[in-house]
Design brief:
The structure is a homodimer. With about 450 residues, the first copy, chain A, is of the alpha/beta class. Chain A has helices at about 5-20, 25-35, 50-60, 75-90, 105-110, 125-135, 150-160, 175-185, 205-210, 235-240, 245-255, 275-285, 365-370, 375-380, 390-405, 410-430; strands at about 40-45, 65-70, 95, 115-120, 140, 165-170, 195-200, 265-270, 305-310, 315-320, 335, 340-345, 350, 360, 435.
């Protein structure tokens, strides 16, 4: 629910920020960061401190080089959890912004904030990122939340006008096996890449529904009666039909084939299966059943969404979205080139001239041998960080980039490109799997840009 | 090269056969078979006795219930090999038809032939099948060879006019794991099926090219200078771009989701990667190199062709075609429903309520437990037959169906539907991955037909 007074404030501040794009106020502010020593301490504000935001808070609390100076959330319980976490770490309690959906705009007005990390429901990602860039705060934003091509363009336009960097917080690019394979790709072990697959295959039924108290596998409620992601994510499965969560798959693939850096996505076509999984989950759950009110819900999201993408340099990409059926977790990576291929699901690879002809080999010895130098250097620090350590590398890169006001490895053009997959796939499915075209968000600059992601052991 | 005299003969015989469709000559002939005792011996003619045809000859020689009375090929070497094989088995040398491309028409005029098995290059499959049905011979035809929707219709129309059965010889439907999974599907172990994958992922570089003497991995020649499949199959990689070999993947999938038996394919969209594999093979082969004449060949066939198919009952299917890159053999099956999934590549499955939550299990104990009754009964006879025993079941079913003049498990409608994938995928790729529609070759009869494939342990 929007608060009218704050809505007015928001419009005012947007307008002012819009004006600032012509006058270089914010640009100067952002440029100011360049002159900071890369070793100085930065001040971070958190917009959204739900369970995901708290992961990031936790990682920042372990660092000497960043201070959490502001947090914003509309959920008091999540704010309390975060404050406790901060106290326990011996840090000062930051300034709190809460009370309504636009409280984040007040946080963005704080002069002492260098950077923000946005970990809110998808619906807010673009709006908050645009406001953060306009406020001149180095912007880190959690993954997914593409609804329209227009808002992807809005991210790009806002960045170009403000020159504020946007770091798209895609953690899977830092997964240890994904980085070892990147290392192998760069050493030409797979030859010229031809075909890639990835996606998000994760049984989220127990995330989309819970008992409103505990986040996982505890019931069949959602929305106002749900907790954590069940409060908002489930609505997307009810109303939308498309590749809703493309970035964990496409982020690493984009690194392998240098998307927006000498290559780009041209077009995609998507296909959706029927939807059965979530309804069955409600019907068969001990707390659900055929007479439960949610048993009458209709879900638009097909249980399996498959998307094929064609690239400018001739590669094909397949994305698998599969979150409503019982299954083991698998991002389903496949990296295939003229010299061989890796597949994540069978933990195996084949390299011509090295592997026995026509035979798989266990990938692990290769993953060990080609372990990325970032992982070799920072392994100890990564231990215990979220999602198998990759979240450490993500936040480390974010903080180090902010400290240098450096262009992030996954920038606003990547954000726009990867996010665009969702509305494009919805469009394609609505049109009976028609191919739909990717905009070139870089306006031709992809041709000359180089891939600098993880080119050394620094961050 | 066409022989004009034989061409005239062919036209005459076609015309006569066409007339016969109105007069019931051939229908009577076919119907005549119905009255044969199912235990009687049948006479088979072989059109095409190259390496694949010889597999089938070998299996027939081991049986008491069929006699090889005629063989046809234009390759004397292959004829000699086959005659030796027949002599060695102690059987009589059959009548030989050879000398020109239409010699098979003379074979089809032999009164004593009950059935034919066609194992020729793709280009001949439809033409020979049509002539065989017109001649009233129970027709078995090897897989693939779809070039146009019209010839798919021609197969259907010819069958409907002559009532001669056509058995599409897709062997992978009889693979032991594929049949165990069919058993599990029919026992509702995977629930309602949602998404399926399959395809043909087989490094054929050493098949598409050889030294003209030995069939595999022996050189970089093809066409007139090649041997066996390299003589003809390679041309398709040079000239065409599409899902050229869909049936090993789609045959089993069609059984799982009852295609043409309560379900049908509605549409597909295909995407092709760039083509690099075959050129690289020539360049890097010890007998090839950058100066070899074949180094200048251009290949139209993308190294990886991906096809998505939508079904009337809401399932999605993905087909993978991948025959020009170094890789281990894998048909890549995935069978996924509301209760779980099987994947062939990691030899694993997950069944809700049985497998540990979110975990894979080794598929083998399930494949053993749900071993199909056909395999249990005939295992000993299958040992040593081609392709891991599945060829025994294929030829066994063919012979038993011929003996009863029974409708084959994979009939002319299946042949047309499965073959249609190739021209449809070529069309889709040529149109930039546009969706293209499947004809309903059954003209609505799919709605009421039942799946009777392997419903008992007989054949």
């Amino acid at each position: 629910m929007e608060n009218n007074i704050n809505r007015r404030k928001f419009i005012q501040s947007s307008t002012l920020a819009g004006a600032a794009l012509i006058a270089p106020t914010h640009v100067t502010k952002a440029t100011g960061l360049i002159h900071k020593s890369p070793n100085s301490k930065i001040n971070i504000g958190f917009i959204g401190v739900g369970l995901r935001g708290q992961n990031h808070v936790d990682l920042c609390l372990k660092r000497e080089d960043c201070a959490i100076v502001a947090i914003c959330d509309i959920d008091n319980d999540m704010l309390d959890q975060t404050k406790k976490m901060i106290s326990k770490a011996g840090a000062s309690i930051p300034k709190i912004f809460t009370g309504n959906d636009r409280a984040y705009l007040e946080l963005l007005q704080q002069e002492n904030i260098d950077a923000v990390i946005i970990s809110t429901p998808w619906r807010w990602h673009t709006e908050m990122s645009v406001a953060a860039m306009q406020a001149g705060k180095y912007t880190g934003v959690e993954v997914c939340g593409g609804f329209s091509l227009d808002e992807c363009w809005e991210l790009v336009r806002t960045h170009e006008a403000t020159q504020t960097p946007l770091f798209f917080l895609e953690n899977v690019c830092y997964r240890r096996d994904v980085m070892a394979i990147l290392n192998m790709v760069r050493q030409d072990m797979f030859g010229e890449l031809i075909h890639l697959e990835g996606g998000y295959q994760h049984d989220l039924r127990g995330v989309k529904f819970n008992d409103g108290v505990t986040p996982y596998n505890s019931g069949v409620e959602y929305g106002d009666k749900g907790y954590s992601e069940a409060r908002w994510r489930t609505h997307h499965s009810i109303h939308r039909n498309g590749e809703l969560y493309p970035t964990h798959g496409i982020g690493p693939i984009a690194q392998y084939i240098n998307i927006n850096r000498g290559n780009r996505f041209l077009q995609l076509t998507s296909m959706a299966s029927k939807a059965r999984g979530l309804h069955n989950y409600i019907i068969n759950h001990p707390k659900g059943g055929a007479t439960h009110p949610n048993a009458t819900l209709k879900f638009n999201l097909g249980d399996k969404i498959t998307t094929m993408i064609q690239c400018s340099n001739g590669e094909t990409v397949v994305l698998h979205h599969d979150t409503s059926l019982p299954r083991p977790y698998s991002l389903g990576f496949r990296v295939q080139g003229t010299k061989g291929l890796w597949m994540a699901v069978n933990k195996s690879l084949h390299i011509e001239g090295i592997s026995p002809a026509h035979r798989w080999e266990d990938a692990q010895p290769y993953l060990d041998k080609y372990d990325h130098e970032l992982w070799k250097r920072h392994e100890q620090k990564a231990i215990g960080a979220g999602h198998g350590g990759m979240d450490f590398f993500l936040i480390n890169a974010f903080v180090e980039c902010v400290k240098r006001n450096e262009r992030p490895p996954f920038d606003v053009y990547d954000a726009a490109t990867w996010l665009a997959i969702t509305p494009l796939s919805e469009q394609s499915i609505a049109l009976g799997s028609q191919p739909v075209m990717f905009p070139d968000f870089t306006r031709g600059r992809w041709i000359n840009q180089k891939n600098t992601f993880a080119i050394n052991d620094l961050y």
